[in-house]
Amino acid sequence: MSLESELPLVGISEIVAAGRRFGGLIRRTPVLPLDGAVTASGGRPPELLLKSEHLQLLGSFKIRGAYNAVASLPEEVRARGVITFSSGNHGKAVAHAAALHGVKATVVMPRTAPDVKVDGVRALGATVELVPPERRDVYPYELAERTGAQVVHPFDARDVIAGQGTAGLEILEQTPALSAVLVPVSGGGLISGVAVAIKTLRPDVKVVGVEPELAGDAAASLRAGERAVWPTEDVYRTRADGLRATSLGTLPWAHIRRLVDDIVTVSEDDIDRALHCLACHGKQVVEPSGAVAPAAFLCGRYIPPTGAGPVVAVVSGGNVDPAVIASVLATPV
Amino acid sequence: MSLESELPLVGISEIVAAGRRFGGLIRRTPVLPLDGAVTASGGRPPELLLKSEHLQLLGSFKIRGAYNAVASLPEEVRARGVITFSSGNHGKAVAHAAALHGVKATVVMPRTAPDVKVDGVRALGATVELVPPERRDVYPYELAERTGAQVVHPFDARDVIAGQGTAGLEILEQTPALSAVLVPVSGGGLISGVAVAIKTLRPDVKVVGVEPELAGDAAASLRAGERAVWPTEDVYRTRADGLRATSLGTLPWAHIRRLVDDIVTVSEDDIDRALHCLACHGKQVVEPSGAVAPAAFLCGRYIPPTGAGPVVAVVSGGNVDPAVIASVLATPV
């Protein structure tokens, strides 16, 4: 028995409390039908529904966890500000959550970060500190020690997991008849929170993670019963740029091994086909990372039993270069 | 005083009855926020919200009117089937509404119709009759006389207008604080129904029609106080292929002159900019006709007073060739 399996999991009450903290500032995103999914999956229903976090504030689910983390800090800690080191959706989310609370956010980025990402975070009112790439994961903690500011980890933190779990609560309220929920996996924060919500309230509903084959460390971990770490150059092969964590977080791994039914993988072609189907039939523009969960259903990587209720796929984000979608739409599938 | 202005308008009770007839078969489409609209419109809010009929069954609002028209027919009339002559979204809607009622639908199309449209209607279970283009508007009535089937006009019919009006009822329930609703105009069925719902229940809310400049017969009609008819070759210049009616219907004109506050026009460039903004910021794939109402807000053709409540634009449909959206997304604006 490893230490990890003894970590206390996030509880449903923490997720309910997170939802209360939102106070209407975070969106209750719609669950949208995916017309044409039946054809694409080559069979009759179960129906595929999209929990549409690409329509969330800032275009991804990340604001749920970031907001809860900032809102949960004791007043005197929060006053010293927050720090994070994601240059993607989580970085923006922390910047915005801090702005909503009137506190300072520092986002640490590698010097190699493209200007557009740096400008995007600055536009949300955060301070960006550029560091050598190898210092990116260390510097935030040094800075925190020096300034007393709080690091908000993108996935390996209770408050973040509890915040992400609010998406799971909403799914249960919005689609009571569901038979399974498909959730993208990277560091594992989102699926951990969603799994707590679903398995506490509806243990009969399957919780299935979805990863790109090319960044399949979580699927490998669940198969082996031991947390795998993949080389950075391996996980960077996937076009799903939000799912390139090299391993699960410690706390997410504890949740996943105890609560998640399965983790399946999708190919890069599956992701393209899903992006195309989501745009043409679902009328939704989604980022590649946001398409992996629907891809698992559409491309037969998760096949629900005949007669099962609707499957809900979490579309985690929509922040994509328009040129990517243009090229997907221009290519017949 | 013309005869038209004496036509009795559709009443709110007919719209409420239409909504009851739907019995859950027609979707209550979501009202989605349009992030980034603020930037695109060059000012601070009022907020733009999208009544998302591109997410309606079959991808457009047309099923509302078609379903209500078929459902309202006396049993013995309905049993003889229905006929229509639209090869676009209304044709599909009538085919599907008939199928839901287990009755025969005939869709009359010009021999010049592309195979993909003919196949699309046939796939919904309707019979397609191909006629010379000049016979397209006459033949359905001859056929109706011969067979006893009922013609379901795309816009010049009470039951169709009442069905479309259910979208207006939903908007009021979904966005009680709204200050205005923007509605695309072609034959005028949708705006007529929406205007009855809004002006009966909330006369303080503005109802504004939106047309392409290149098919601006309704705006010209409202200005002149007299129904204008534009040449077919003129209205066919707009890329908004669902808005090429050469004039308003008689019954819609009676509604519009009495209930609609204004009709504004948008350029083809405005439509392109709106398609781009809807995809990039709203994450929504929309057909050009569906983009005209948001375009009026985004491009300053409808400017709400400072401090006004949210503006709801009806996105009427999403049935668009993927290549069109690909080309819009590939072109920076």
TrEMBL record, chains A, B:
MF (Gene Ontology): ATP binding; L-serine ammonia-lyase activity; magnesium ion binding; pyridoxal phosphate binding; serine racemase activity; threonine racemase activity
Residues annotated as domain Tryptophan synthase beta chain-like PALP: 25-317
UniProt xrefs under Gene3D superfamilies: 3.40.50.1100
Superkingdom of the organism of origin: Bacteria
Cofactor(s) needed by this chain: pyridoxal 5'-phosphate
GO BP: D-serine biosynthetic process
Keyword terms, alphabetized: Lyase, Pyridoxal phosphate
Family: Belongs to the serine/threonine dehydratase family.
UniProt-recorded name of the protein: Serine/threonine dehydratase
Organism: Streptomyces alanosinicus
Taxonomic lineage from the root: Bacteria, Bacillati, Actinomycetota, Actinomycetes, Kitasatosporales
